[in-house]
User: Fold these one by one.
Assistant:
Number 1:
Amino acid sequence: MMKINGFNNYELEGSFIYFIFSKDLLYIGETQKITFSRWVQHFYKSGTFSKKIKKHGIIGVDYISDVKLLSVELIELREEFPELRWKTLTQAIEHSLHVEFSRSQTKLIKNYYEKYEPEVNRFNLVSDTSRTCPKSISNNDWKYAENFAKNIINHLCNFL
Amino acid sequence: MSSFEVLPINADRICEAISKIGYKPSSAILDIVDNSVVANSDNITIELHMKEGKSLNNVQNINKIRVIDDGIGMNKESIKKALELGSNVNYQENSLSKYGLGLKSAGFSLGNRVEVVSKHSDGISETYFLDRNIIKEKDKFGYSVTDTDEITTEKLEGYDTGTVITINDIVYTSRVSAAKIIKDLTEKAGVSYQEYLASGNKTFKIKVIKVKDESESVEKEKIINPKDMLFWDECYESFEKENYDCKKPCKALDTDFENPLDPEGEKIKIQVAIFPKDSMKNYLGFNEEEQKNIDKYNVGLKNSGFYFYRNGRLIKWGEKLFLGREFGFRAKILFSSHHDELFDVDVSKQHLTVSEEILKILTNLVSVSRGQSKEIFKKCDNLLKSAKNSGNEGSEFNANNSVLEEEEDDVLGSNSDTIKERKEFLETESEKLKLTGDTYEDEEDKDTFRRVRYWEEGRNLWESATDRLEGTYVLINKLHPFYDLVLSKLEKGSPERQSIEALFHALAVGENQTIKKFQAIEPDIAIQVFDKFSRASSHHIDNWVNNNWSLFDDEN
């Protein structure tokens, strides 16, 4: 017996922010397709997350077998803005999350790491938004992205 | 069991070593002034005494340096303590002192003799001094005492308490002059002690004293006022791209972040202000006052970067860290003694080390501000450019190509009646486009067919359209991110801009020609194909823009 599930391209679409947790390393990314398709790319040998492990991980530690993945679909964003803006605003929210975790790790340490990785008292945010951070969106868009990011952190902490 | 033996110390060599830790004369003087600030002084005066017969700009013209304050003063025991190497004073919370070496190392970097006289509740003290010559002769580190002279006593006469530090037997390691030092101090001191000076009723003066026949006269006097390099009180509350007028700086960030070594402890503050281009001071569209204001901001490489303040005192001026030539970006990092481990401030309080982790935090925090700073410079560039170029975008292309032919060679199998029908179909479709802003800034443009037009509609980067009389024109969308990233950066009418406009026009011509002459398919199907093609390629170029935001960064 077997069961075949199929999806067409439209069902895969959506604006997503995803988190890859692995020991002390945290990777935050964004995609406009359902997240698992993006996640898979990360774990290829030449994938971004695999490269980050090489760069920031401790030699000999198996990061890949201890990975926790989490994604957040930004439904509200797709409802409130035209298609042309989805990618840019998702990137703005992705960057705002990096800013928030640069300002403070306390919430995530208390809500995730103390539960699942108790030996980690400071995580290493290994993703980088320097190339993708939108450079010319309005201040109001940044305020929107900042609030959205704060909301994501709150929801994430409650979920965990 | 281990044993411990005391080893001799060469006192003079130690004094030499601490005097050579990289002080500039002005930084050394300000390090001595730190003691006056710590002592809660309301009045601080720096005196630079010139050698007899020398003028202000002669090199090596200083004979003596004095710092006078009306702070809490010291009794004899406190003076002795202050003269110890690595004095173990119980510093107040957030004191400017750190290692107990400042007075000695700064003093000896300026001269061979450091004298201290203080007025306390028990009166004016004798003069306690450290003298390199005596220390060398005795081969021991220690102080000497002598009677306090009349002039020093007079300096403290008007104050209930206070201290005079005098540096004698000045050492010169460079061709420095009193004029140079006073200039350096005037530039630095207001910024270094901005918080202290702004805290009310403080007077901070620098005087150049001329001595003739044993009488002193003031040759030059400067009053130091607090100076905020971020001009925070003058800043617009935020950078609003659409309304920004390029006249004033904008607040770009005002937040704090956790100390990674002590997340529960005191946070570190960061403020960022972003400035208009210095060349706006010559922009003819601004009045004289506005131009002067921009001049005052002194925007340039030297003043850009991060200003690190420890306990309200400037440690590092305009540190560039990871910044490039981002002239309009200024940030203040405000930390306290609690964060010393994190920033590793050196003895001279001129240098600090920023850890990798702090660098990463700062990179993330200021990323948006840096982008906005570049936006401000672009806005300024556009204003400066628009002063030189007026008229509609695309007008140069249109003027240069008024007789451009768009017909291709006849295609075999095309029926001319069908071509005519399809042409009319396209013209009718084009008339459905809601063209607004179809105005001509330049009267002459009215006679030229506008093959390239800019508009703000829809999601596609371009749309092709047909004019009944003249033929194909292209509409380039100013709302598309490609316009923002690329087209707007290229000066209107520049060869690069016209070349890109030519490509868009060619795409539109190709589309119309195909619809008219590729008669194997129905025109509505052909239009659908091109609609899909425009959407897909516009979407793709949008993705390309998203991945290349910084493409034009070096242009600033």
Number 2:
Amino acid sequence: MESAISCQNLTKTFGDHTVLKNLSIEIPKGKITTILGYSGAGKSTLMKHFLGLQKPTKGKLLVLDKNVSELSDDELRNFRKQFGMLFQYAALFDSLTTYENIAFPLIEFTKMNKPQIEKRVNDLMSSVGLQEQSLHRLPSELSGGMRKRVGLARALALEPDILLYDEPTTGLDPITTKMVNDLIITTGRTENTKELTSVIISHDIQATLKISDYIAFLEKGEIIEFSPTKEFKKTTHPTIRMFLDLTTH
Amino acid sequence: MSMQAVLSPFYKLFEYFYESIIEKVEGAGDFALHVSAILYWTFKKPYRFQLFVDQLYFIGNKSLFIVALTSIFSGMVITYQTYIGMKVMGAYTLVGPIVVLTIAKELAPVFSAIIVAGRCGAAMAAQIGTMKVTEQIDALEVMGISSRQYLGVPRVWATMIALPLLNLVFLFVANIGSWLVGVKVLGIEEAKYYSKLHAFVVPNVLWEGIIKAAVFGFLVGIIGTYHGFKVQGGAEGVGKGTNAAVVWGMIIILIIDYFLTNLLVPILYNI
């Protein structure tokens, strides 16, 4: 199986504190992989490494066959254009309308003209189930679920190879959580995004079991389990067992 | 009492000073990195001219009324106080030149800069700080856009361009206030009010004010954006950043004003 992201003995230390310890994982291309773990386990640090926002102290990180540590600042900025990211609270630009938020990457990085941008924004809006009446609303006028949809549409605008989700369902009500989960599955598995690799950082075990193809469990900077969802459910590792039992009951 | 117990307060005092010095050095290094990043990104494409124009409008045009209001009353009060002093010596024909020199060389650049630090420096820190705590800056970086280029560069250069223009507005309006009080209220003859102006007010007086205002503009922009990018935590962090931007902006303007005067006077007036 081809890897989109390959971590080989990755270590990250901040002063005396080791956040990632000799971590190795191969994240498969075109699949939905969730990295689970307790708060402070190193999930966000690992995601920042994928994006090249932090560099490993030791080890090798290959993302789409590029060694992230060897990229210059300018190369890193270009490299990041292959990613889309849905932030925990969507991180929409609060001075821009829904339309302007979705169009932002298209204006910045493509040579599309105004009608082409309008068409692409309309397509993206319908793909994430956004109504036309929210087009000219500011983020402050949108509900939590709507903001997630706009954030996802913006992340998909440049047709990324890898889509990162940072705690996508944290703080949402059950109905909106289901909507976001369905959206992640639809986005990760539709025909036109067949090669899209989705990486989710989460501690929502129920959502993870529903939407993931592969699950990794991160504890104290180490991957203690990485397997397809069906096998992950049957794991006998005591920490994961406790995590599964506590959060599914 | 053991030796350890005797030395303990000294050790704590040493530790306090040591940590305090390290913190200040780290802060200075951080600030130097911010300045160099702004300079570096200024000359890198894409040049964001529209963002610069938007900031110029916000800093310049939207500050006009408050600068004009402050300047007219500053001109009026300075004229009144100068007239009282000069009348004692019978030298009230010097009121016009003294007031113009005071305003052009000091009041216009310093007051305009303090107004802009309070109004726009605070706004910069609050806007950028809020964007930081709500992950909007991370969103920019993840897209491959330098947040310092997108948010910092237009603000810094717009402040540096807007402040000399506001300084000229201040000078013009303050002199109208001065003329009103001097000629119309205190009854100085118009011919005497103007009589010595040409001898004292040379073009370099204007240049001194303009150069000072440009330097203050750069500093207000740099300090405002620096404290915005430095924000940590939530609303409390944004509040602290905004407060620091205003306080440090004003303090630095007054300190730099003295050294800038020392530097410019010999160059501009061959003294």
